[in-house]
User: What shape does this take?
Amino acid sequence: MKKLCFGSFATVLVRCKASSTTQKKLCGTMLLPFDPTNDLRTADGATSALAKGTSNLSSIITDAVKAADIKEVVQHFMAEVVPLLDNNKKSNIVLALKDIIASDDSIAADTVVECVNNITKDKLVTYTTIVFHQFLAGVFLYLAIYLDNRNCGDAVKEITDEYIQSFEPKKFDIAFIQQHLAFSTEIADEFAIDAHSLALLSETRGACQNCGRILGIKKEGIDISYAKVVRLLGTEDVILCVECERELQNASEAEKLALLAEKRELETRSAAIDAVSRHEIERRIEDVLREIDDLEVSDDTRLKIKPIKVEQKITEKRLKENILSDVNRLYEGVNSSLDRLSGENKLNVARFAKSIRRMYEDASENLTSQSEIYNLLVDTLYEKSGRKYKEACAIIISYFVQSCEVFDEIAE
Assistant: This one.
């Protein structure tokens, strides 16, 4: 059985290291800040026993990890550890570690296993957008403080080159970013932030445009920096923290113009990122549709003729917002892919629509929650398409909610 420990963590990294990196250099570099007087980068025996899962980290190291400044640990992984890895295998590392964590039954679902961003096991295994150095540092902090490494030899032996290679087909499921957007939709609900404010926050990646302070962070014992939308010049708005909003009241015309020029640059960059993202997700949607063979569907399955708006059949607020977001962004993209594949005789669209409708009818017999039904349909499509691109599968199901095969009109 797969088990998270320092040995399994280190072995995943070693099997994905740069060709010029040795095991002792990688493990020794990782541990050096926590016991600088004992440089393991030249100690074959010590690093080998640790990587094999046959000995524990020393008490000096574990005590130092407990007392460490998390920001310094993150910086160390970014500057010293990540450069020792093969950049082409970053996705394999993430997917392997997520698989090991998901498979380790000794770790409860609500356990925080990524200690940089305080992400629990059940949430981490679903993440597809990753800050790589934070992910590595966060998992390392958890296992170094809480997990035994002494009797993990059998689990470590399961981490072979073939195991790492098995994640190749899924590597494009992982997207890497420089930092997590701190302003979540849940926090947006809490602050009653409108769509315009969220658009401004998206452009600045959740930060004050002026000072870079992250807005909307909600943590125990830490004050929240509220987002303030400020009219700059004419009809131009910027998003600032409270302190910068106060300072802007006394800013010169030149300072305001400089802030405005930066905002327009952020708008251009955001539009470019959105265009690239849209192109990539449309490609993934088509890849999923190309993988779909004829699904089983009974002859008596009937499709609806009269369209029913999403608002008239989805009662759960969050689900409605997610579906409408997918539809507004990518309905035409899904439609174009269906038309193109139909024209190439690669997909029987009418039969595919019937199969989605039948999947919905079957799910409705056993489930009452719209979210549960929706998630089951997404999971089913994900499995039937060879576990390709779950986000694309969700968008396809949202398309069929809009085109009326999924969910019925709410009774008056």
